[in-house]
Design goal:
It is a single chain. It is built from 4 helices and 23 strands. The chain has 411 residues and is of the alpha+beta class. The chain folds into 3 domains: 194 residues, Beta Barrel (Elongation Factor Tu (Ef-tu), domain 3), CATH 2.40.30.170; 64 residues, OB fold (Dihydrolipoamide Acetyltransferase, E2P), CATH 2.40.50.100; 118 residues. Helix 2 packs antiparallel against helix 4. The two termini are 80 Å apart.
Length: 411
């Protein structure tokens, strides 16, 4: 009985050893790709819109009722064209009043200079003549007093008359100066200047009732209608200033290092997908939108198509790197180091590599591998394991190269 048990144990032990041996010699299936040179393209694709380089909102600076909206959307505008007219009855009345006030002030000044001035001058001449006559009479009376022909009382009376005449002459000179060059004329001139300023103010207020185009362009939208009461700062219309159209897009900040002004781009409008056209990256905003984590990018159009309109949605593809004959592996094949596992003699062997262009799904291998190498993409396979190549079940590089997996999508 003991011999049978011992024999059974020996048989079981031998079977276990044989099973372990067989398991150790078995190869694991490893998803892999075979390297071969093919084009590799990295691009950023974003959705943007067409926009004028300058767009202007026309607004009111006074409280008034909209009287007229003369133009419709899409109408061409010339600098100074009236786009919106506000009710102006009160402003026109104020202008008429200011014009009348100016005419009155000018009439007063003309009267001061043309009538009061000459009268005052004549009065001055008369007073000076009277003063001169009184002085001569005083001198004659002084001579007669010395000769004894008249008394002291007569002389004193002549002196008083001369003093009064001199005082009257001085007063007439002051009055004449006031009427020709002094305070009276200055006061009249000040009233004219004040009336002229009031007239300019009335004209400017009347001008505020006309909302005009600041430059040549196109009316994009009407934001108010006749009868609507608007407040200062209210937007009444939007226009685009004449100039070339541009494309504006928001790009995720993670692609910022790939973008450089001057890069070529291919554009397709959603409305005309069969008519692609070219653009070039003109500028990147100096700041990142903290809310969306994106950067505003603008594209210039050397030859914009005739059908392109403001706010038209477009898809923009910017090629940021291109390799005509690149060895590329799927991104999941790259390991720390960087390194990749290749199949050599039925085993997974680690090979250090130097990488180049990276896309969302592919990595260019610059050094460390040659065409024909079989690269393991399964991250579960460890170096040294016995493996055999298996088809890549996930998206492969394909025979046409890496273009199919190299798109980097923006916002």
């Amino acid at each position: 009985m003991n011999r049978k048990l011992a024999l059974t144990l020996v048989v079981v032990l031998c079977a276990a050893v044989l099973l372990v041996f067989l398991l150790r010699g078995r190869s694991n299936d490893a998803e892999s790709v075979t390297l071969k040179a093919a084009p590799l393209v990295r691009s950023v694709v974003v959705t943007g819109r067409a926009a004028s380089e300058s767009r202007v909102f026309l607004g009111a600076t006074i409280t008034a009722r909209v009287a007229e909206m003369r133009l419709r959307e899409g109408a061409p505008l010339k600098r100074g064209d009236t786009v919106v007219r506000l009710e102006d009855a009160e402003a026109r009345a104020a202008l008429t009043q200011a014009q009348a006030a100016l005419r009155s002030a000018q009439a007063r000044l003309a009267s001061q200079r043309g009538l009061s001035g000459p009268v005052a001058t004549q009065q001055q001449d008369q007073a000076e003549a009277n003063a001169a006559a009184a002085q001569r009479e005083l001198e004659r009376n002084e001579s007669l007093f010395r000769q004894g022909f008249i008394g002291q009382a007569r002389l004193d009376e002549a002196r008083r008359a001369a003093e009064v005449a001199q005082s009257q002459a001085r007063a007439a000179r002051v009055q004449a100066d006031a009427n020709t060059r002094g305070s009276e004329v200055e006061s009249a001139m000040a009233r004219v200047a004040e009336a002229r300023a009031a007239l300019e103010l009335a004209r400017s207020r009347l001008d505020l009732t006309r909302i005009v185009a600041p430059a040549d362009g196109v009316l994009l939208s009407r934001l108010a209608e006749p009868g609507q009461i608007v407040q200062p700062g209210a937007r009444l219309a939007e226009m685009s200033v004449s100039g070339p159209l541009q494309l504006v897009a928001q790009v995720d900040e993670k692609f910022l290092a790939q973008l450089t002004p001057g890069q070529a781009a291919s554009v397709v409008a959603d409305a005309f997908p069969e008519r692609p056209f070219a653009a070039r990256l003109r500028s990147l905003a100096p700041v990142v939108d903290a809310q969306r984590g994106s950067v505003e990018v603008k594209f210039a159009l050397d030859a914009p198509p005739q059908w392109l309109r403001n706010d038209m949605t477009v898809s923009i593809e910017v090629v940021t790197a291109r390799r005509e004959n690149a060895l590329a592996v799927p991104g999941e094949a790259l390991r720390a180091g960087p390194a990749v596992l290749v199949i050599e003699d039925g085993r997974a062997v680690s090979r250090p590599v130097k990488t180049g262009v990276r896309t969302l799904t592919a990595v260019e291998i610059v050094e460390g591998l040659a065409a024909g190498a079989v690269v393991i993409t399964d991250p579960a396979i460890a170096a040294g394991a016995r493996v055999r190549a298996a088809p890549l079940r996930s998206k492969a590089l394909g025979g046409a190269g890496a273009e199919g997996i190299s798109r980097a999508m923006g916002n």
